[in-house]
Amino acid sequence: MPKNVRIRKGADIKLVGAAERVKGEAPFPSSFAIKPTDFHGLTPKMVVKEGAEVKAGSVIFFDKDNEHVKFTSPVSGEIAEIVRGEKRKILEVRIVPDQDQKFEQFDVSDLSSAEKVKAALMSSGMWPMLKQRPYDVMANPHLKPKAIFISAFDSAPLGPDYDFILHGQQEAFQKGLDALAKLTDGKVHLTTRGGSAADATFTQAKGVEHNTITGPHPAGNVGIQIHHIDPINKGDIVWTISAQNVALMGKFLLTGKVDLKKTIALAGSEVEKPRYISTWVGASMKSIVEGQITAGDNRIISGNVLTGDKTYMEGYLGFYDDVVTVIPEGNEPQFMGWLAPNFHKFSLSKSYFSWLNPGKKYKLNTNMNGEDRAFVVSGQYEAVIPMDIYPVQLIKSIMTNDLDKMENLGIYEVIPEDLALCEYACTSKINVQSILRDGLDLAKKELG
Predict the structure, then answer these.
(1) Which end of the chain, N or C, is surrounded by fewer C-beta atoms within 10 Å?
(2) Do 90 and 132 reside in the same domain of the chain?
C-alpha cells in the first residue's frame, strides 16, 4: 500500500545559484573518461589498451569479482590514456571521441525474464547504474533484492529538478521501470515530493508503488525513504537507482544502443547563468564549466555541496552525478572570526542570525570555520537525521572498530549521503561520511 510520509527533522540549506528551468547544450567534449573510482569496491580488469578504437558501448574493462558485469565506453573514439595511481591502480580511462559517433548494437528483442534483462544490462555497461544496500556498492546480479527504490526528487542544496529533466521522457522511463520490475519479487517504489505536483513521467508510471514524502532535506535521499517505507533489516537486500538513470536504461532497452547523453544542473553562486545543460556521462569538466563561471578561486564539485567530489577543469563528470556545483573556496581567514556579526552566514544553530530570516539564500564558501575538537554527544546529529538510529554512537562504534555495536546501531541502514547533514552540522568537525564509508567496508568484509 502506498505511503505518505512526513518528516520534521532535517534542514534545507538555501544557497544562491539554483539552476533555472532552462536547457542549454554543452559543447561536444574533446575528452571523456570512465573512472573505476566511481564504483566503490570495484577491481577493474582492462580489456583494451591505449590506442584501441572503440564504439559507444564497447567494453573497456570488467569487474574482476564478476566478469559478466562490463563497463563500456560512453562514446566512440580512441583510448588515449590509462591513468594509474599508486600500485598501478587504474584511476581513469581517457577517450578522445570521434566527431561522428558509432554505436555497438545490442540485441534487446527478448526481455521476457529477469535473466535476459540482466544479461542485456550487464553486457552493455548499464548494470552499474544499480546500487545495493547495505554497503552502498554496485548491485550484485547473483542476489535478488526484496525491493527496488527510486527517488523522483533531490532535496540536496542546489540539487537537480527531475520533474524538469525527465519531462517528456515517459516512454523511456516506463521501459526502464518494466525491466526493473522483473529483477525483484517485491515492489518497485517510486517516491515523489509530497505537497507538490510531480511530472506526468512519474505520476503516470505503471507497475510501481507510488509513495510521497514531505519535509526538509534529506527527504529526497533514497535511504530516508527506505527507512520510512520498507526498512532494511539484517539479511535484507535493497537496490536503488536514480530517476534519470532509469530513463537512460529504458532508452537503451528501446534502441539497443548505449546512448549516455543526459541533462545535468550547472549550479552554484560562481556560475554566471545557472541552468540545465545536455552533456554526456564521463564528459570533461572543461566542456561543462569553461566560460560559464566567474573568475577567482573557485571549487568545482561533481555532485552537490554535501556529498560531491572536488574536481578541476581537467577532471570529468562522475558516473552517478546529475549536478555540477561551483562555489568559492574558503581559503581566506575572516576578520574577528566567530566574533563578527556574520549576517551573511547560515547556521543550523543560533550562532549567527540566519534563523531570523528563514527564506534567505546564502553565498557560502568551503571554509570549515574551525578544526577538530572533542567529539561529544550534543544532539546536533539527531536534529538533522530523520531516522530511528543513534548517529553519534554509530560513528563512535566505527571509530573503535566495534562490529557488534555497529550492527546493533544500524550500520545496514545508512550510507554516507544519509549522514551528510550530520557532518555539516558537526561543531567537532568530524569527517562523518569518510568514517561511515570505512565502517561499511569493514562490515562488508567481516559480516558479509
Answers:
(1) N
(2) no
CA 99 from centroid of its chain's CA atoms = 29
User: Taking the CB of residue 107, how many other CB atoms lie within 10 A of it?
Assistant: 10
Number of domains within the chain: 3
The enclosing domain of 199 has a CATH number of 3.40.50.11540
**Cis amide leading into 134 (omega within 30):** yes
Tell me, yes or no, whether 89 lies in a domain. yes
Shared domain for 134 and 86, answered yes or no, is no
DSSP string, 64-95: TTEEEEEEE-SS-EEEEEEEE-GGG-EEEEEE
pTM (two decimals): 0.95
pLDDT per residue over 398-438, tens digit each?
A: 999 999 999 999 999 999 999 999 999 988 889 999 999 99
Range of the structural domain that residue 151 is part of: 126-255
- DSSP string of 284-347, one letter each residue: BHHHHHTTTB-SSSEEEEES-TTTPEEE-TT-B--TT--EEEEEE---SPPTTGGGS--TT---
Q: Per the domain annotation, does 345 fall within a domain?
A: no
Alpha carbon distance 114, 283 (integer Å) = 31
- Per-residue pLDDT reduced to its tens digit, 154-173: 999 999 999 999 999 999 99
The Cα–Cα gap between 250 and 104 comes to 16
Chain-centre distance for alpha carbon 365: 21
Length of the chain: 448
